Amino acid sequence: MKAPLFAAVGLIFCFAVAACSSEEATPVLKIAGIPDQNSSTIARRYDVLTSYLSRELGVDVRFVPTVDYAATVIGFKQGEIHMAWFGGLTGVQARIAVSGSKVIAHRPRDAEFHSKFIVGAALDIDDLQDLQDLSFTFGSESSTSGHLMPRYYLMQSGIDPDGDFLSPPNYSGSHDKTWKLVESGAFQAGALNEAVWDSAVAKGAVDLSKVRVLSATPAYYDYNWTVRGDLDETFGEGFTARVQESLLAIDDDQREILELFQAEKFVASNNENYQSIEDVAAELGILN
User: Is the same domain home to 149 and 183?
Assistant: First the structure.
């Protein structure tokens, strides 16, 4: 009676080993993105994208949710994320943390991106200097368009964001929360990324009788797809190029992906495009 039992156990063990070996032979491509909007929008965005990439690349592609911008960078650093949709600052932080990592794509608009300063519609002000002594909210502390670049241009205009507002600035955590806080009157002014603002206005979600645009920053590079430097080592020679090609091939046949990323398409990019972001972050002492 024992022999059949041992044989059965041995068979189960063999199946387990085979399953493990199969998993090791076909690693999962794990992708993420900074949580810059509400969770339902983020979830839908990556559900559609992972399905597309799985078909194009012939591997299992899974979305890794992250709680905030910093967690996305940490996951990338620890190898729990292979590729991520970063903002300019978080992309710089991730590439510094993981040697050999590189930008492979961005949207055309990311080469000429802007932050928008918004204020309560009833406020009689017309330039950045008028923001002094008002309550103000940024987005996430790690956001390029919701914090880094607005802070930089506020300082360029002579405003100390930590000393010249009515109180220390708030950090809403995401762009959609920023405009809602200003619209509600919780804060008199704020800064957010132009793509989220423009999209919300186009959808009729913003009450323009309560909140308006004061001004926009000069252009800078922002969002980007960054991959780890060991992607080819993990998935095979040429895999990084295949991932890039799959992103660049997204067109009207995948219209939902483009709409969820507020893009007309993705174009090739490189690390050098984001050097100015790194320089600004270093100058402001927030590159960490």
Answer: yes
